Amino acid sequence: MAGPDVPWYDGITSKRRILTVFQGKSVTSSPIWSNVVPKAVKDFTDLFNNLKLNVGLALAKPTEQPEAGSFQFGGADIWVEALEQFTFPIAGRNVNLDFATEPFAQGITEKQVWDFGIKDQVKIQVRKAVILMRPNPQSDDFPRRVGNGVLGCWTVHEFIHAVGLTAHTHGAGDLYEANPALRSGKRDDPETDKLEVRGGDKVPPIKTLTGDTIKRIQTLWPKP
Q: What residues pair up with 51 in beta bridges, in sequence order?
């Protein structure tokens, strides 16, 4: 069972409000993901700006790999790779993500949390997040890969997990529902692929989020 939503640490939620995204080697060397991830960062930020939500994303520099030490906060906030399995050395531990243990997932996100409380006060907050995407997702209907538009939607979905949300919004009818259904388009045109969410809306493009999802984000990222 998924746990509760978790806010990022105060230095980000009260000041910076921009989470930086580090693209690992499997992303930057991929002819697919090297295009998808930067566009998903922009699509996420444009969507959240349009909805007047108080967090955005920005690409980190290639030198800004998140620091691995247990008491280190340097480097980017979110680390993305595109592999079937990857071990992330981050936040003082090795984080093992593997699609063999998540066979139906299109992406896997794990937030690294720390108790920022003082003395007896417990204050659990996120200090880093890691995302693993499949290297070459395949269409349900044709022997070809999924189009970049859908891959971008899946990536934005994982970014929503990374900014603090955990369980999917129940019956969302938006990109953050549990399993938007892949609807393959034309055999020779992956960019006609869509995702169908509850209510029948199909994405891309990403237009909005539902009220319940928005409220959860506003709780984690209140107005300054």
A: none
77 Cβ contact partners less than 8 Å away, ≥ 6 residues apart:
8, 12, 19, 20, 21, 60, 66, 128, 129
CA–CA distances in Å: residue 196 to residues 69, 138, 178, 185: 41, 17, 12, 12
- List the structure tokens of 119: 């003395």
Q: Among residues 15, 1, 52, which one has the least CA distance to residue 218?
A: 52
Distance (Å, whole) CA 154 – CA 147: 11
Could you give the CA distance from residue 91 to residue 78 in angstroms, rounded to a whole number?
Answer: 12
pTM for the model stands at 0.95
Question: Nearest CA to 24 among 88, 79, 83, 90?
Answer: 79
Two tokens at 217?
């984000």
pLDDT tens digit sequence for 121-159? 889 999 999 999 999 999 989 899 999 999 999 999 999
Statement: residue 1 has pLDDT above 70:
no
Provide the residue type at 158 as one letter: E
- Characterize 126-156 residue by residue with b for buried, 16 or more Cβ atoms within 10 angstroms of its Cβ, and e for exposed: bbbbbbbbbbebebeeeeebbbbbbbbbbbb
How many Å apart are CA 167 and CA 1, to the nearest integer? 8
Measure the CA–CA gap between 81 and 57, rounded to whole angstroms: 16
